[in-house]
Amino acid sequence: MRVIAGFFKGKKILEPKDANTRPLKDLTKESIFNIIQHSNKFEIDLKKSNILDLFSGVGSFGIECLSRGAKNVIFVENYNKVLRILRKNLINLKTVENYQIIESDINKTNIFSILNKKFNIIFLDPPYKDKNLENLLNDIYKSKILFKKSVVIIHRHKNEKDDFPKQYKIIDEKKYGISKIIFLSILD
Q1: Where in the sequence is the domain holding 68, given as residue range(s)?
Q2: Is the pTM of this model over 0.90?
């Protein structure tokens, strides 16, 4: 796995050897960024964006955002082994200090109550078997951490049937191998 574009282009991203995590594949990641940056469905300027990377794993999505000039990235991860790799990835890339790592179990803690900023992009990559997505999206909405034109991007198994709260609308959905990527926005 590698950084696709920007300042860290071509740099390797370390990943765990176990099957408990499934880092975002390069092709899927590249497609997400092409959609964000070139689709008329979004009004996102990555260089002015605050990014929240939930269930961040080794940081593939957030690191790509940093490489492409994101203003700020907050990584949230709970799994100790993966946290060590995430920290090592950020150190190896010699990134600037426009990121923060929060060690937290999102399903057990109201992480949003401690965040003191709004986000342009929230990336959710929960475990495929996680059934708490609807509650998590409700918590995000209630916390008012999204700008009006923000996008929530969700990485799921292609066969997963999710219900989304009525405050959200699906802007786009793409399938890549066994994955699907869902782009949501909040309704006005």
Answers
A1: 27-34+44-186
A2: yes
